[in-house]
Amino acid sequence: MVRNAEVLLRIQHGLEVCQWKAVVGFTAAPLRVEGILGISGGLEYFHTTLDVFANQIILIPRVTLPVVADPP
């Protein structure tokens, strides 16, 4: 069973903020493809660098990111 929910995803580093609306699915079932950080989508809006030695993921927003205004 998968439950879908509309969420506002927000990434912030210091004063830089990037947020967008997305529909995500939650399930307790094992997935055949784990994706990155347990997600299989959404990263197409970012230039993504994985630095396994520093335990970091660097996300730089692309111009195609559908950014939304701050929530009320």
Number of helices: 0
Number of strands: 4
Integer average pLDDT = 74
Radius of gyration: 14 Å
Overall spatial form: globular
Q: How much β-strand is present in the residues? A: over 45%
Defining traits:
single chain; globular; two-stranded antiparallel sheet; 0% helix; 47% strand; mainly beta; 72 residues; 4 strands
Write the SSE topology.
Blueprint: E1 3-13, E2 16-26, E3 46-51, E4 56-61
Structure description:
By secondary structure, this protein is mainly β. The protein has one domain (3-26, 35-61). 0% of the residues lie in helices and 47% in strands. The chain has no helices and 4 strands. The chain has strands at 3-13, 16-26, 46-51, 56-61. The strands form 2 sheets. A two-stranded antiparallel sheet has the order 1-2. Strands 3-4 form a two-stranded antiparallel ribbon. A hairpin with a 4-residue loop joins strand 3 (46-51) and strand 4 (56-61). The radius of gyration is 14 Å and the shape is globular. The mean pLDDT is 74.
In short:
The protein has one domain.
